[in-house]
C-alpha cells in the first residue's frame, strides 16, 4: 500500500495523503472455478454433458457389470447350477450395493444385475447350466450382424461407438482415411463376435457346460481387449490430410 501527496500550486499547501485501496469485487460475484477438464467455468457457461463412458462408470464400471457372470461360471463348475445361480445373483446385488456406498454410477451394476437375472431365468426354465449362456450367445450373434450391416451402410460401429462414448461427434465420417480405418476395425469386431458364436455355439450344442464356461471367460474381456488394441493401432496409423 503506498501514499501519494499533492501540492497545490496556488497555495503551496500540501494536501492530505491519499491511500490506494485494493479493488474489491462486487458482493456475490463468484470467482472462476475449474471446469471438468481443467479450464475455467464462468457464469452463464453451460455445464459439460458427461460422456457415455462416464455414465457407464468408466472401465471399473464395465468390469463390475461382468462380475456376476464370472461368479456363475466359477461356482457352477464347482457347486452346480443352483449354487451358481444363487452366487451370481448375490454377486450382482453386492456390486450394486458397493457402488451405491461409494457413490459411483450404478448404471453398470443395474445392467449387470438385469443381465444375470435374465440368464438365470433362462437357465432355470431350461433346467440346464448351458441355458445361462444362451442370452449372451444370441447377443453376440446380434452384435456381429449389426457390425456387418454398419460396414455396408458406411456407418462402421467402431467409429460410431468410439466417438459416441467420447462425445466427439460424427465429423470423422467426412475423412475417407478414418472411414476406411474404422471400417477395417469394425470388421475385426465382427470376426470376434462371429468366433464367439461359432465356438460357443458348438460347445452349446455338444452340451459341454464346463468348456462352455471356460470359453465364455476366455472369449470375453481378453478377446475384446485384443480387438480394442487392434482398433487403436489401425486408427492411429490412418493417414491424416
TrEMBL record:
<keyword id="KW-1133">Transmembrane helix</keyword>
<dbReference type="Pfam" id="PF11361">
    <property type="entry name" value="DUF3159"/>
</dbReference>
<feature type="compositionally biased region" description="Basic and acidic residues">
    <location>
        <begin position="1"/>
        <end position="17"/>
    </location>
</feature>
<keyword id="KW-0472">Membrane</keyword>
<protein>
    <recommendedName>
        <fullName>Intracellular septation protein A</fullName>
    </recommendedName>
</protein>
<dbReference type="InterPro" id="IPR016566">
    <property type="entry name" value="UCP010219"/>
</dbReference>
<feature type="transmembrane region" description="Helical">
    <location>
        <begin position="211"/>
        <end position="235"/>
    </location>
</feature>
<keyword id="KW-0812">Transmembrane</keyword>
<feature type="transmembrane region" description="Helical">
    <location>
        <begin position="108"/>
        <end position="125"/>
    </location>
</feature>
<feature type="region of interest" description="Disordered">
    <location>
        <begin position="1"/>
        <end position="49"/>
    </location>
</feature>
<feature type="transmembrane region" description="Helical">
    <location>
        <begin position="58"/>
        <end position="78"/>
    </location>
</feature>
<feature type="transmembrane region" description="Helical">
    <location>
        <begin position="178"/>
        <end position="199"/>
    </location>
</feature>
<feature type="transmembrane region" description="Helical">
    <location>
        <begin position="137"/>
        <end position="157"/>
    </location>
</feature>
<feature type="transmembrane region" description="Helical">
    <location>
        <begin position="84"/>
        <end position="101"/>
    </location>
</feature>
